[in-house]
Amino acid sequence: MTLRAGEHPVRGAFIYTFGAHEYDLASRTHIMGILNVTPDSFSDGGEFLSVAKAVDHGLAMAEEGADFIDVGGESTRPKGAAYGEGAEPVGVQEELDRVMPVIEALARGVSVPISIDTYKADVASHALAAGASIVNDISGFGFDAAMAGTVGRAGATAVVMHIKGTPKTMQKDPVYDDLFGEIHAFLAGAVRTGEMNGVRQMLVDPGIGFGKTAADNYRLLAGLSRFGDLGYPVLVGPSRKSFLGSVSGLPVRDRLEASLAAATSAVLSGAHVVRVHDVRETRRAVAIADAVRRVSR
After folding, report:
1. Residue 70: what are its φ and ψ, rounded to 5°?
2. In terms of residue numbers, what domain contains 168?
3. Which of 122, 165, 239, 256 could lock 170 by a disulfide, CB 3.0 to 4.6 Å apart?
4. In this structure, what CATH number is given to the domain that contains residue 120?
5. Quick check: helix, strand or coil at residue 297?
6. With bands split at pLDDT 50, 70 and 90, how would you rate the model's confidence at 296?
7. Residue 43 CB neighbour total at 10 angstroms
8. 84 Cβ partners below 8 Å, 6+ apart?
C-alpha cells in the first residue's frame, strides 16, 4: 500500500497518546525540542550540564511551542573531519545521573510529553518510570536486545532510527548500493521488532547524518514520502548538522537559517515531526510549510 504523506492506513490520521496527552501527528507538523545534558554534543555540549539550566531550557522550549522535549545524556557526535574524534560512549549509571534529575523535574513542570534519547534499555526503563513516555532509540532496537520489550511493557512510544554502523564508525566513508531501499528495509525490520514486542506506537526516522554523506542527507530530505508505506509517522532531525554546513559554509552556531530551510523541506516532503534546537523559529517556519502542504494534497 502506498500512502500519501500524513495518511494513516485506516483512519487517515495518526492519533497517538503520550500519557495524558493525545496528538494527531498528521494534523500539523509537531516539534520535538532537543535537550542535551552532555559535555560533548556537537552543537550545545556543556551548555545544560547543570540540572537547573537543563530544566530551565526545557521549560523555555515548552513555552516556545515544543510538542515534545527530548532529553539525552550521551552524545552521538560522530568521528570525522567535521567533528574531530567524536564523542565517547558513557555507562548506564553516568547516563542515568545526567538525565534522571532533569526528567523528574520536567515531568513535574511541563505540560508536554517527555522523550528519553537513549539506546540502553536500563536507561529507558528508569526514564519511563520517572515520567517519560517516548524512547528515542538511534539504533532502531539494534544496540540493546532488551529495548523493544522494555518499551512494549511500559506501553510507551518508540522512535526507531536508521544508523549505519555506530556513532564512532558511521561517518567513515558510508556507502549505499540503494540508499532508500536499505534504509526502508532497516526501518521495516525495526517496526516488526517493535510490533512483536507489543510496541503499539512508533515513529520512523531515516537518520539524517547517521552514516550518510551530505548528498545522501539531501536525497533523504527530498524523498521522505518514500517511507510513508511503513504505516507510521516520519520524524526527521536535520537541525544544525554538518551537511548544512557543506552547502552554507557556516559553523554550527550560524546554521539557524539553514536548519529552518531543512525543516521546511522535510515538512513539504512528508515529515510529521521535526527534532530541532531552535523551537520558536522552527514553529513559525513550519506553520507556513504546513499551510502549503494542506492546499497541495
Report:
1. -105, 110
2. 27-296
3. 165
4. 3.20.20.20
5. coil
6. confident
7. 17
8. none
